């Protein structure tokens, strides 16, 4: 009888490693079984220990097919894995780790995107206590400032709607402290940018209408592109599933960039912010674009690496975020 | 800040004869020994310079000028330590080391050098003395550690002197920044105002105030980290001697 000690990550709802080995949703395993299912019924003995203290939390002496989240050889396994299909004998030891307070991805996204939308508008309408009192509730005399407000607001409304209706998240939750970190980033930068763009002493772009028109074109092109990619990625995944497939170009020309890039959503996002920087000719916007670019590059490289690891036939022409460069 | 480098946690590891970590190669070790010896010597020069100037003048006032050049040279030279972490020959965090070295360089150049009027302040002497003693101990500690021949006295000094030197240095730094504030505001030093082509502004005066405020959360964390390190490194040795 094999006994393997396995690291486990705790299912989201339970606290302090006290997990009832309640059988998961009665749906069958989502992974294809390695061998044909045997006719004989196999029962497991399961011992659940706390990962840190190794205290025995509970012992289950007759477990059928269950769907816990635990790990094999130190790597955590997924919610969909089935005990029966893992290389264990009829006795298994689970270690559970408390992931700490969690918050749903949707909640985090909605909060971190609603902030910039509202904050920017406060600066745009020159709400009191931001600028000198004589400017309260006045509007800028430069038309590019109105255009910038429309673009910025459109961008975040688009993000909010995508969060609600488009994205299919792999994970339900993330650590609670992330919401404070993320909101500081988004809200902080939004306030910093908005302050200068809507300032009474704002200076419009050097090359005037030409520059603004080019910038707007780039911005809109990349907004549509980014949206197209989000739709294409959504369509890779059936509703309620967490499958992962290689994304490919579709009939939509904006997705043809998949030929050259693994994460074109980030490529288009960079393009949008470059457009916005050009449109406003504002250094804080350039900083925000740079920082975002660095973060997205880190994410893109990670994603690209997981694609290469997971799929043997992954297209070799693709770069993580910038065609041929990065 | 006058905090000794956060490399202590890693050097503490190499203190206990736990050879789990692979050290730097022979060439890197030779380079690091030379680097640390040079830095020890440099800060000794500053120490001697301070003492000689004090004896010559008979007062604490204006001693900064007697060691201004070596101070700038050797404190700025510490930037190499960031490179050492980045390249991997020193097992410390690049971010942490970077933060500490940059804060020293900031005090040296962006405050003391840039605002001439504070150079004759006594607070400058306060942090210069704190830095000098700290660095002489720290760099000799690294030198001896690299040569695997660390006298207990140096280890003890490294993990004990900070108790007084760290608050002393912080006090000197804060008082110096505070003294610089009125001059910065008056002259608009390093500040950019609106309107301008790139729609950006920066108020150095406000920035300095924010730097001072940042000491409030940061200083206790660094100080208590050193305290914990002290218990781990010095307390550990006491246990061993009890066992025997």
Folded structure, characterized:
- The complex is a heterodimer of chains A (326) and B (244).
- Chain A has 326 residues and is α/β, with parallel strands linked by helices.
- Helices cover 42% and strands 12% of the residues of chain A.
- Chain A is built from six helices and eight strands.
- In chain A, the strands form three sheets. In chain A, strands 1-6-2-3 form a four-stranded mixed beta sheet, with no helix packed on it. In chain A, strands 4-5 form a two-stranded antiparallel sheet. Chain A has a two-stranded antiparallel ribbon with strand order 7-8.
- In chain A, strand 4 and strand 5 form a beta hairpin.
- The longest helix of chain A is centred in the C-terminal third of the chain and has 28 residues.
- Chain A is elongated.
- The two termini of chain A are 50 Å apart.
- Chain B is an all-alpha fold and 244 residues long.
- Chain B has one domain.
- Chain B contains nine helices and no strands.
- In chain B, 33% of the residues are buried.
- Classes of the chains: A alpha/beta (326), B mainly alpha (244).
- Chains A and B meet through loops of A and loops of B.
């Amino acid at each position: 009888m094999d006994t393997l000690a396995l690291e486990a990550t705790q299912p989201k709802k339970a606290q302090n490693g006290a997990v009832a080995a309640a059988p998961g949703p009665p749906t069958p395993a989502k992974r294809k079984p390695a061998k044909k299912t045997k006719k004989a019924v196999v029962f497991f003995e399961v011992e659940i220990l706390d990962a840190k203290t190794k205290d025995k939390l509970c012992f289950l002496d007759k477990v059928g097919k269950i769907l816990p989240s635990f790990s094999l050889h130190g790597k955590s396994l997924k919610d969909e894995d089935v005990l029966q299909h893992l290389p264990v004998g009829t006795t298994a030891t689970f270690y559970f780790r408390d992931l700490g307070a969690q918050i749903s991805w949707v909640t985090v996204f909605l909060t971190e995107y609603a902030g910039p939308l509202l904050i920017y508008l406060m600066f745009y309408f020159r709400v009191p206590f931001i600028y000198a009192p004589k400017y309260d509730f006045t509007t800028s005399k430069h038309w590019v400032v109105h255009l910038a407000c429309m673009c910025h607001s459109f961008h975040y409304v688009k993000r909010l709607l995508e969060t609600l209706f488009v994205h299919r998240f792999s994970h339900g939750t993330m650590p609670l402290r992330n919401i404070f970190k993320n909101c500081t980033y988004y809200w902080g930068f939004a306030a910093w940018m908005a302050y200068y763009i809507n300032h009474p002493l704002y200076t419009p772009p050097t090359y005037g209408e030409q520059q603004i028109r080019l910038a707007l074109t780039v911005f809109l092109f990349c907004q549509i592109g980014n949206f197209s990619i989000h739709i294409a990625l959504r369509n890779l995944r059936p509703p309620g599933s967490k499958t992962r497939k290689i994304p490919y170009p579709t009939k939509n020309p904006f997705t043809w960039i998949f030929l050259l890039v693994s994460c074109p959503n980030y490529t288009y996002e960079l393009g949008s912010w470059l457009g916005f920087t050009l449109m406003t000719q504002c250094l804080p916007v350039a900083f925000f674009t740079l920082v975002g670019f660095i973060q997205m590059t880190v994410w893109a490289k990670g994603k690209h690496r997981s694609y290469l690891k997971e799929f043997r036939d992954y297209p070799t022409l693709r770069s993580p975020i910038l065609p041929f460069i990065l | 800040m006058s905090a000794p480098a956060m490399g202590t946690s890693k050097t503490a590891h190499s203190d206990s004869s736990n050879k789990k970590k692979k050290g730097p190669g022979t060439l890197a070790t030779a380079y690091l020994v030379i680097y640390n010896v040079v830095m020890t010597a440099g800060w000794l020069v500053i120490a001697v310079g301070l003492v000689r100037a004090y004896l010559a003048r008979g007062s604490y006032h204006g001693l900064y000028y007697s060691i201004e050049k070596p101070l700038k040279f050797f404190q700025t030279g510490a930037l190499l330590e960031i490179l050492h972490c980045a390249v991997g020959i020193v097992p410390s965090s690049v971010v942490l080391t970077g933060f500490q070295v940059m804060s020293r360089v900031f005090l040296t150049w962006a405050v003391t050098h840039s605002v001439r009027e504070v150079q004759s302040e006594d607070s400058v002497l306060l942090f210069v003395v704190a830095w000098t003693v700290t660095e002489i101990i720290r760099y000799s500690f690294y030198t001896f550690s690299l040569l695997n021949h660390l006298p207990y006295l140096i280890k003890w000094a490294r993990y004990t002197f900070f108790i007084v030197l760290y608050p002393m240095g912080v006090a000197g730094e804060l008082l110096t920044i505070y003294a610089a504030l009125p001059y910065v505001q008056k002259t608009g030093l390093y500040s950019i105002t609106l309107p301008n082509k790139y729609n950006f502004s920066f108020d150095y005066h406000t920035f300095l105030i924010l730097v001072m405020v940042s000491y409030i959360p940061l200083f206790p964390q660094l100080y208590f980290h050193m305290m914990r390190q002290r218990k781990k490194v010095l307390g550990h040795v006491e246990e061993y001697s009890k066992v025997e």
